[in-house]
Amino acid sequence: MADQSQLNNLTITIIILCFSFQSLSSAAESHLTVDFYSKSCPKFLDIIRETITTKQISNPTTAAAALRLFFHDCFPNGCDASVLVSSTAFNIAERDSSINLSLPGDGFDVVIRAKTALELACPNTVSCSDIIAVAVRDLLVTVGGPYYEISLGRRDSRTSKSSLVSNLLPLPSMQISKLIDQFSSRGFSVQEMVALSGAHTIGFSHCKEFTNRVNPNNSTGYNPRFAVALKKACSNYKNDPTISVFNDVMTPNKFDNMYFQNIPKGLGLLESDHGLFSDPRTRPFVELYARDQARFFKDFAGAMQKLSLHGVLTGRRGEIRRRQLPEEEDTDDEEDIDDEDDIDDEVASTLLLQVSQSRQKQFRKREEKSDKNQPKRVKKQNIMKLNIDDFSEETLRSIEVWYKDELDPQDIFGDNEVTKQFSKPIKKQLMSSDVDKDQCRLMLSKEQVKEKMLPFLDESEDPVKGVDVSVYGPDGTVHEMKFKIWNGDKTPVLTSGWKQFVADNGLVMTSNFITVWMFRHIKTRNICFAIANNSFPLKKKSSR
């Protein structure tokens, strides 16, 4: 009897807890209204609409980028703009978790443009989370999607931790049962999950997310001719991880129900796309939306409204964040470079697109400026995400000395037959994206490259198109690479042979710090780089 009484008490406790959580959610939603800014910022909607229209016209993948950003912000822990927060020396934020590294930069850029305009019109009034929600809705309308009401009054999260989004976002290779469980845990039905999957009617995916399943000779769900085209489009993705393919190869820039029409024909791109049609729990909704676009629009709009209310913060539970993004994003009015030359004609003829590098956040500039509130030591180092927990105090002092030390490259490379003039150095700590075998390319500070290296280039050497360079390692070994400034976000990178350079020199993330110089070869007159490497020991983790 005692056991039964305890069980009954436990059941009552669980019910009360569940009711409490539901009450908190309902209480938060009750503070949201459609006209929340009608008095405090009457031009709110006009400013958003003007900003997103300009951005979408100049960069047609903005709608898809913002939609994905919105989902990655809302789905794990609620719509609180935590995905916008930058990492610091003491914390790795959500945006730098592995699953968020591929978020396209255009999504971040359209938000910061809107936030900048709104701060000028209505200082410290509109939250970043409200901006994302409305911007995504309006962007979807510009590409043919449904209009739906957005309740406003969200507040922004004060924290953002990479660890809080681990395993909470769907993966392209995830099985349908796992997807259903994930969505169900957040209160979404199977039908709502399928409707939200229709977001794949716009946007693109990296080749590495699906090529392992593409085989024209087996039954993996791909149309054989489509599989051949995918193999061809992605043939070089290991050397160039930026290669991507549209999720909807028929109408990639139009929000419609073509995604659902494609799946039964074997034209789905991701494993999860094929799973929606093969699983009896989701197939009826795929077939419904394939034949009835109006029904898809209605259900998608309802699911988006529901998602926009997930885990919102109101009142004192959040804040109006005034500076939601680092200065790494382009916020000026400089015209973006035309990307049409990046489209391969033969691939485009099969309705596949190698999406321009400018559309991907994983290739955004990683040399973030330190926040003003960080310790002076870290601020002076200007090394992104230098986590003091990784190093002992003695090692941190050594890193500081290394950063301040003005190295003479002639002392390291010492070859007057190669050059007599080096650029000023760029120093950085290697991060995961610099050494990861799938992403492997060295990303350099945009501001420092502009100041220290671009003056070395002749007019005929266009880094946007790519410049072939020779890179001298610490031991004098030369690697042939390409120096390129990606379109749109204008991030400078060393690519192609960088992967082999990492392997030959045993470079690893966190503990390796490099110094990079540019120079012009005294004989060939070709642009070259010299790279010196320093390794600092990580702090030994204490065993419990």
From TrEMBL:
Q: Where does substrate bind?
A: P170
Q: Look up the signal peptide feature and give its range.
A: 1-27
Residue ranges annotated as compositionally biased, kind Acidic residues, are 327-339
Q: Where does heme b bind?
A: H200
Top-level taxon? Eukaryota
Family annotation (InterPro entries): B3_DNA-bd, DNA-bd_pseudobarrel_sf, Haem_peroxidase, Haem_peroxidase_sf, Peroxidase_pln, Peroxidases_AS, Peroxidases_heam-ligand_BS, Secretory_peroxidase
Indicate yes or no for the key word Oxidoreductase: yes
Q: What is its EC number?
A: 1.11.1.7
Q: What CDD domains does UniProt report for this protein, alphabetically?
A: B3_DNA, secretory_peroxidase
Q: What is this protein called?
A: peroxidase
Species? Arabidopsis arenosa
